[in-house]
Amino acid sequence: MKLWEKGINPEPAIIEFTAGKDRETDLNLTRWDIVGSMAHVIMLQEAGIIDVSERNEMLKALHSLFQLAEDGKLIIEKDIEDIHSQIEKEMSSILGTTGKKIHTGRSRNDQVLVDIRLFTREEIDKLALMIRKLFIKIQSLSEQYKEVLIPGYTHMQPAMVSSFGLWFGSFAECLADDLLILCSARELNNRNPLGTAAGYGTTLPINRRRTTQLLEFDDLLYNSAYASLNRGKAELAAASALASVAQTLSRFSMDICIYMTSEFRFIDFPDEYVTGSSIMPQKKNPDVFELIRGRTNIIQTLPNQVAMLTSNLQTGYNRDLQLLKQLVFNAFDDAKECIEIMVLMLNNIRIRKNITDNPLYNNIFSAEEVNRLVRQGVPFRDAYKAVSEMVRNSPFSRTTLSDYVHEGSIGNLCNSEIAAIFNKRMECFKNRPAAEIEAKLMKFAS
Ligand code: ARG
Q1: Domain 109-193+223-357+412-432 has CATH 1.20.200.10
Q2: SS (H, E, C) 407-419
Q3: Residue 112 CB less than 6 A away from ligand 1
C-alpha cells in the first residue's frame, strides 16, 4: 500500500528502489514519529479540527503502537514505503475512519523533518553523556600520571619535556570544545518544523506553537519553505559536530598507536586487549585504536557528504534528502561505539615510568637549560647559542615539575578549570527520552 496510491499499480522495482534502505533506517524514527503524531493530534483537537473522543481514541491507538515499538515489534512491512506510511496504516486498521484523520494538516515531509529533529536531539544528548564518560576517564588519567614525564614532539622529533598529565589533559580539553560544537548543533536542530506540511503550510487553522511546546522544542522553524531547506542544514551542523568529536578520537588513537610501538613503548595494554598475528608470534597489535582511527576518519568525511548531497537541490522537498538519514544515523552509532571501546581500553591502559631517563631524550631538556641561563641574566639569544654548542654531547640537568608553574604547563595542568568549562557546556544537553514525552502526552487521553 502506498499512501499516494490512486488506482494505478506502481511498478514494484520502482517502489523497491525508492524505498531504498528506509524500511530499516526508519525504525530509528518510529518512537519519535508516534510522539510527534500524539502532539499533532492534541493540537488538532484544541484547534477544533477533531473532537475530544477522536483525539482520545487516536492517543490510545498511538500509545499501543508506542509500546509495540518499545518491544521492537513494530516493523515496516514489505509493501510499505516508510515508517510514516506504516503508522498511518496501523492507525486505520485499529480505528477505521478515525484513524484516517491522523494525517490531517500535515505531510510526510514535515513528519520526517520532525522525527529526525527529535531523534537527533536524543542522539546528541546520548553522545554528550558518552563524551562525559570519556572526559572523566581522560582527566583522571591526566591527574594520576601527572608526574610521569614523556618527550613532547614537534615534526615527529623529540622536542621538549611533556608529561602524561599534559598529553591526556590535552584531549580532555579537546572534548570540552567538541561539546561546544555539539551544543550549537543541538540548538540548530531543536526547532519545530511540524505544520509546515510540504514546505508551503496548510489552510487548516493549525497551531504550530502548541506542538512546539508539547514536543519541547526551543522554538519553531517559522518560514515553511525554510523548514524544508533546513533539512540538510541541521544535518550539516550535526555532521560537523560529529566530525569534531571524530577528529579528537582519531588523533588520540594515532598517538596511542605510536606510543604502543616497541620503539616508543610509552604505554601498553594487557594481552586480552590487544590482538595477535596469525604468522608473527611476537605481535601485540593496536587493532582497536586503528579501527577507531579509521572509523572516525570516515566520520570526518561526513560534512562533505552532507554538503554534496544537498548542494544542487531546489527549494522544497527532493527525494535525495532521504539518503541523509542513513549517513547521519550511522555516524552517531559509529561515534558512540568508538567512545565506548575507547573508555574500556583506557580503563586498562598501562603507563611506563622513567621514559625520559633514556639518554635518547637528553636533548629535550636543552630549552630548559637555555631558560636556566636566562634566569641568571644571560640574554636569550646568547644563552641559546651557548646551549646549542653543548647540545651534541652533554646531558642536561633534568627539569622538575616545580620549574613549570604557568597555567597549562606540566607543573600546572589546570584540570579543574578545564572540568569547569566542560561541566558548564554539559548544561546544554538534557536527557529527555521518547518514553518520557510519550507518557506526558498520553495524559491528555485521561
Ligand atoms: N522517506 C522519505 C524521506 O526520508 C519520507 C518523505 C517522503 N516524501 C515524499 N514526498 N516522497 O525523505
Answers
A1: yes
A2: CCECCECCHHHHH
A3: yes
| Cβ of residue 321 lying under 6 Å from some atom of ligand 1 | yes
Which ligand 1 atom sits nearest the alpha carbon of residue 81?
1
According to the model, what pLDDT value does residue 1 have? 56
At residue 274, the pLDDT reads: 87
DSSP designation for 191: E
Lowest mean pLDDT: which of 169-178, 210-219, 379-388? 379-388
Q: Average the pLDDT over 238-245 and give the result.
A: 98
Distance 444 CA to ligand 1 centre (A): 29
Which protein residue's CA is at the shortest distance from atom 3 of ligand 1? 322
**For ligand 1, what atom is nearest to the CA of residue 82?**
1
Sequence-ordered alpha helix ranges (H) in 71-221? 83-95, 108-144, 164-189, 208-214
CA distance 64 to 93: 13
Ligand 1 neighbour 108 (Cβ under 6 A):
yes
| Dist. CA 406–CA 32, nearest whole Å | 50
Condensed to tens digits (0 to 9), the pLDDT of residues 353-395 reads 999 999 899 889 988 888 889 989 999 999 989 888 888 767 7
Please give the torsion angle defined by the CA atoms of residues 3, 5, 11 and 17, in that order, rounded to the nearest 10 degrees: -20
Distance of alpha carbon 227 from alpha carbon 419, whole angstroms: 37
Angular region, 280: left φ>0, alpha ψ -120 to 50, beta rest: beta
Ligand 1 centre from 108 Cα, in Å? Answer: 6
Atom of ligand 1 nearest to the CA of 324: 4
Nearest-atom index, ligand 1, CA of 22: 1
Report whether 267 contacts 256 (CB < 8 A).
yes
Q: Is-contact 242 184, C-beta < 8 A?
A: no
CA distances from 96 to 86, 91, 103, 370 (A): 15, 7, 13, 85
Q: What is the pLDDT of residue 446?
A: 83
Residue with CA closest to ligand 1 atom 2:
322
Burial class (CB in 10 A: 0-12, 13-18, 19+), 105: buried
Mean pLDDT in residue range 405-426: 97
- The number of residues in the chain equals 446
Nearest-CA neighbor of 101 among 88, 86, 90?
88
For β-strands 219-220 and 191-192, DSSP reports them as parallel
pLDDT tens digits, one per residue of 45-58: 999 999 999 999 99
- Output the pTM of the full model: 0.94
Does 82 contact ligand 1 (Cβ within 6 A)? Answer: yes
> What is the largest distance, in Å, between two alpha-carbon atoms of the chain?
94
Give the distance (Å) from ligand 1 centre to CA of residue 382: 71
